[in-house]
Amino acid sequence: MACAAFGAVPLLMIALLVPTLVRPNGVWVLVAVSVFTALTVGVTVRVGVLDDRQFLLLGSGGMAGVAVSAFVIVDPASTTAVGAMLGVVPAIAASGSSRRVTVRLTAMAMALAVAVCIGETVGVVRVVAVGATVTTVLVPTVLMASLRSRVASMTARLEELADTDPLTCLLNRRGLTARAAMMLDQACTSGGSLLACLVDIDHFKSVNDEFGHAVGDDVLVEVAVTLRTVAGPNVLVARLGGEEFLVLGLAPDMGGVEALILTTLRDEGRVTVSVGVVRCTVIPGGDEACDPGSAVDAVTTTADRALYAAKSYGRDQAAYVQAEPLPWAGPDRS
C-alpha cells in the first residue's frame, strides 16, 4: 500500500519546484500525504507481514492519500495519471489478503477513482474517464485474483501428487506422516491408542515371476482398493513400498479391520495377505516426544515384528503385538 501513496513524494518535490502545478495550499496537503507514506513504510518494515486489519487500514489511508494528491493537482491529465495509481492497493490485496479485504479495498478504490474523474472532467469526457479509471482498478485486481487462484490450485495439486502413491492412489510415506500427526494429537488428547495393521501380500514375487509385472501392478491396485473400502473414513491407508501397506487409525475406528481384510481378500481377491497388528498407547512425552516421522517409524517397526510372526505361522493370517507407549508432544508441540 505504500506504493500507492508513494506518488505524493515526487509530486511534492515537483510542487516545490513548480508551485503552479498544484492548487493553493496544495503543497501542505502533499507534505501530509508524504508523512503518512513514511509512516506506512515504517510500519510495514517493522511488522514484516501485515494482517488483514493492518493492510485494510494502511491501504485505505494510502488510497485516500492518492485521491487527495490527485485533487490538488491543477493539470487534468496529471490528475488522471495519479488517480490510476488507486489500482495498486486492490491488486496487492488480491495477491494475498482475504476476499473480504480485497472487495472492500476495490470498492473504495473505484469510488475514489470515480470521484477524481467527476471532479476534473465534464460531459462525454467524464463518462469515458470514469469507465477507463474503473477499468484501471478492476483489471489488475481481477487478474491478480485469478493468478492467485490458479497458483493455489496448482500448489494443492502438487502437494496431492507429492503425498500420493502414483500406482494405487493411496498415501505414500510422506502423506502418511503428515496426516498421522493429527491422529497422534487426537490419541494423546483423549488418552487413547492407535492400532496399526501392516499388510504384506503373500508370495507376491511369484505373481510377478509367473504372470509379469503388469499383472503384479493390477494386484497391487486391487489390494489397495480393498484396503480403502474396508477401512473406515477416519482411517489412514498408505502404500509403504513394494507389496507392503499400512492401515493406521484410532483403536475405536479399527475394530476387527484386520479380520475383514483377510476375509475379503481370501474370498474375493487373487492373492492372500499376512497382517501384523500393533496397538500403541500415545502418552504426553515432554522432552522425549517423537516427531511424526519417528512415531510412524516406531509403529511400523513394531508392526513388522508381528507381520514376521504371521508369515512364520503360515501366512494368510494376522499376528498381534502390544507396543511400548509412544511419547508425543500433543497438539501444542512446537
Q: Your description of this structure?
A:
By secondary structure, this protein is an alpha/beta fold. The protein has two domains: 2-160, no CATH class; 173-328, Reverse transcriptase/Diguanylate cyclase domain (Alpha-Beta Plaits), CATH 3.30.70. Helix content is 64%, strand content 13%. The chain contains 13 helices and six strands. The chain has helices spanning 2-6, 8-17, 26-47, 52-72, 76-83, 88-96, 99-120, 123-162, 173-190, 204-211, 213-230, 257-268, 292-312; strands at residues 193-201, 236-241, 244-250, 273-284, 318-322, 326-328. A hairpin with a 2-residue loop joins strand 2 and strand 3 (244-250). Helix 2 (8-17) packs antiparallel against helix 3 (26-47), helix 4 (52-72) runs parallel beside helix 7 and helix 5 runs antiparallel to helix 7 (99-120).
* SSE ordering: HHHHHHHHHEHHEEHEHEE
Using only CA atoms, what is the Rg?
Answer: 32 Å
How many distinct folded domains?
A: 2
Characterize the largest beta sheet: strand count, sense, and whether it forms a barrel. Answer: 6 strands, mixed
What is the SS-derived class? alpha/beta
Number of strands: 6
- List low-pLDDT spans: 1-7
Oligomeric state, counting identical vs distinct chains:
single chain
Query: Roughly what is the average pLDDT, rounded to an integer?
Result: 84
Share in β-strands? 5-15%
List the total number of helices.
Answer: 13
Judging from the principal axes of the Cα atoms, what is the shape? Answer: elongated
Distance between the termini: 33 Å
What helical percentage do the residues reach?
A: 55-70%
